[in-house]
Amino acid sequence: MKKSVVFWVEEYFYNPNALQKFLSYFFLPLSWLYCFVMYIRFSIQKAEDFGISIVSVGNLTVGGSGKTPLVTALAKNYAKPAIILRGYGRQSSGMIVVKDANNICCDVQTSGDEAMSYAQKLPHAVVIVSEDRKKAIQKAKELACEIIFLDDAYSKHNIKKRDIVIDVDTKNSFCLPSGPYRERLWSAKEALVVKEERDFKRVVHVKNPTQKMTLVTAIARPQRLEKYLPKVVAKHYFEDHHNFTKEELIAILAQDKATSLLVTLKDYVKIEHFGLPLSLLDLEIKVKEDVMKNF
What we know:
Elements: H1 2-14, H2 18-26, H3 28-44, E1 53-58, H4 67-75, E2 81-85, E3 96-99, H5 108-111, H6 113-121, E4 126-129, H7 133-142, E5 147-151, E6 162-166, E7 191-194, E8 200-207, E9 213-217, E10 234-237, H8 246-256, E11 260-264, H9 265-271, E12 278-287, H10 289-292
Parallel strand pairs: 1-5, 1-6, 2-4, 2-5, 6-7, 9-10, 9-11, 11-12
Antiparallel strand pairs: 3-4, 8-12
């Protein structure tokens, strides 16, 4: 039931049918009110300077946009970066250092899947999850980080930072609840807007490929993966941050007569301990040189 609702909402936001378009227009008065409130919120906030370089990478819409691989690509250029994110889907709360400069300090249930992906992909980085970004910034400074990357923090207007916004294609350009936009790119707000294929592109490698792979993934808008897929025997899409059980994955392997599960790193960090045959769809970002000159 939950999966069906999530996928219906994603369709409503990004590729609405006739009924969904009607609903979108029906909610427009609420959408205008929401957008006005968000503008007032932006206008009255003052950015606090933390005395350290801070870069936010995010998007204006709900759902996935490629933030994680883009942050990873940018952070690789620094010796002592910190990654700070809220940690959606984690079974914990408060500020937690997922990884210090040397070691991973907790399990994936505590960190959440995205934070653990950063921890495994960036062995030299500090990774912190926290609902309170300011508290996490202070912690990163204590750990002697030279630059901080905030994952999905455009709306944190009370923090002085450089904003990178990923432009996401959608047929629905309204604010919530009529459309996917959480906020607009306010005219008084400086931000670098980047777009896939124009400013960066994905490079995909399959690690540990097998003859009969079946795709299993729990990311937002999973259809985004399809143009990067090798040949697979089937595709199984779950809602974002879904917590897999070993039994359901064993059932998929048996049902598809597959030799391995093809997963993204975000999925891999949650299921590697099951001891099942896994192939990794490793997504990396190549950022164009003219974009990198901004850093």
